[in-house]
Amino acid sequence: MSETTVDTGKRTWLIATGCAGAIGGAAVAVPFVSTFNPSERAKAAGAAVEVDISAIKPGEKLTVEWRGKPVWIIRRTPEQLDALKQVEAQLADPQSMRNPAELTPAYARNQMRSIKPEFFVGVGICSHLGCSPSDKFQMGPQPSLPDDWQGGFLCPCHGSTFDMAGRVYKNKPAPDNLEVPPHMYLSDSRLLIGEDNKA
Amino acid sequence: MAEFKEISPNAPMAEKALNWVDNRFPLSKLYKDHLSEYYAPKNFNFLYFFGVLSMLVLVMQIVTGIFLTMHYKPDAATAFASVEYIMRDVPWGWLIRYMHSTGASAFFVVVYMHMFRGLIYGSYRKPRELVWLFGCAIFLALMGEAFMGYLLPWGQMSYWGAQVIVNLFSAIPFIGPDLALLIRGDYVVGDATLNRFFAFHVIAVPLVLLGLVVAHIIALHEVGSNNPDGIEIKATKDANGKPLDGIPFHPYYTVHDIMGVMGFLLVFSAIIFFAPEFGGYFLEYNNFIPADPLKTPLHIAPVWYFTPYYSMLRAITGEMMYALIVCVIVAAYLGATRAAISSTLKAAVIGGALALVGLMLAIDAKFWGVVVMGGSVIILFFLPWLDNCAVKSIRYRPDWHVYLYVAFVLNFFVLGYLGVKPPSLIGERVSQIGTLYYFGFFLLMPWWSRLGETKPVPARVNFAAH
């Protein structure tokens, strides 16, 4: 075997057919990997949700499901709205400047992060790793929270905290404020989540 | 290829049958190479039970797993109920399920002990690097297997644990969100996710795992086992070429291992029958609540075997990033001034460090948390090339090396403990120090493992006949 010389013509063809086979193999992987993507049924399941908000009392929260995620509708009390101003210095992004296109629609880029100051509408999914933060509306010292706590949310997974407008505090694992979904008021008591008239 | 071997027609039936097989399949050869003439060092201690125990648990997980799939339904609407059905209505179903769920924790106990054994006796050193690499790959596959299996009961912990871990991938810049979508197959963890995790858990990963186990053992039997003294037994052979300090695996270690298996099964059965949930550590209480995508449990923590890495993930906050940046700068400075490398390489070190610092400032701490968590497992792969100590076994290392190893193990336990606890300020600080120690232990190993006076290594192993 070692005596024979290399037939370069044959070797070129071996390499060429080998490459062609490899490309074919890689192409076959495409449909297989594509099956991992969301199916047409999953994509179609993202319809807008209409909610009656007339029964929510001040200080209460209503959770509805939209695209499989929890959406919170919170009717904030005047004290809670006041607290939004006080905590501003401790927040990472009080003006909602980061990723505004994805997180905060133009009509919510204000201190309250809402259309109507009283009602906050936000997706209750932490921007860190997708846990749903728990309600910590009561002000004052309590476990896992600073002593000057002004009310908001605490993510049970990694301890990120948010104020009553879903704005994240500084030096927490979560980088971003909670997402405000596209929404609009159909009337004073009817809220539509998932669609807005600015699109 | 062996010659075709004829045997006397008067030979006993069994001998003739074996000869017939041996002419067509290397049965006797395999038996000799891997059992009756595989020479293992005679000085194995207690820690050498855990290899065979990992094998035992692997077989047990496969067998119980097969029986569980006969009753389990991988469907978000029925999965939780089908597990309860196995627990309550299937005859002896509870036993099979508890064997499988306790087996998962037992698997990690024995694998961690097995890895610890390798770590302290230098079983990863030349020529056993590939044994170690295959082992690390097994550990990685095992982590994937355990993670995907934990989603299947579709309890609250299953659901939110998967949500958190899958979202880890979305922290990767640019491709992250699409990658997470590809893994979930939906915009949130849902039926699609459960179904595919089931497929990975019951067939894809186990196949990989089995292949890696075979590779691990073939590599081990090629180079031979290490031992607590870290002495090559092949260096001292008798007139027949058999290692003087070696004994045939069968019957010596097969019988010896049966004792280890009995001890293990005693403890294992006691847990299955008397404490299958193990106080919420093996089966978390929140997982007895069906998955609710709208409500995260107040306290979520991974199962105990993932918590050291989870602690390191949590330790990476915005503040911690500055500490890490300082570490990178110091490392680059030392590399540029002290290391014995060419000046172009030094320029590359400085350039690389500056680029890294730039990235560390530009990308969220969240992403670096994921990098640290992944890195804490991946770094194990590099161990054979990090250790520069003149001796293999901890028995002949300088005494202060032993303290470093003790601190490493304690640190691992502390990180594990903090990982099951709710986040707290003091816990965060401790886990940050723990993370620095964990990485410092490995990354500085090329330097510290060289230092100190090693003890003289004897030519023959320490062994007192009993």
Outline:
The complex is a heterodimer of chains A (199) and B (466). Helix content of chain A is 23%, strand content 19%. With 199 residues, chain A is an alpha+beta fold.
Topology readout:
The complex is a heterodimer of chains A (199) and B (466).
Chain A: H1 8-34, H2 40-44, E1 49-52, E2 61-66, E3 69-75, H3 78-86, H4 100-103, E4 119-123, E5 134-136, E6 152-154, E7 161-162, E8 183-185, E9 190-193
Antiparallel strand pairs in A: 1-9, 2-3, 3-4, 5-6, 6-7, 8-9
Chain B: H1 13-22, H2 27-36, E1 39-41, H3 50-69, H4 79-88, H5 93-121, H6 129-151, H7 156-169, H8 176-184, H9 191-223, E2 246-248, H10 249-274, H11 307-315, H12 318-337, H13 343-362, H14 365-378, H15 383-386, H16 399-420, H17 425-443, H18 445-448
Question: Sheet bearing the most strands of chain B, described?
Answer: 2 strands, antiparallel
Largest sheet of chain A: 3 strands, antiparallel
N- to C-terminal distance of chain B: 43 Å
CA radius of gyration of chain B is 25 Å
Helix proportion of chain A: 10-25%
- Low-pLDDT windows of residues of chain B: none
Q: How many beta-strand segments of chain B?
A: 2
Compute the average pLDDT of chain A.
87
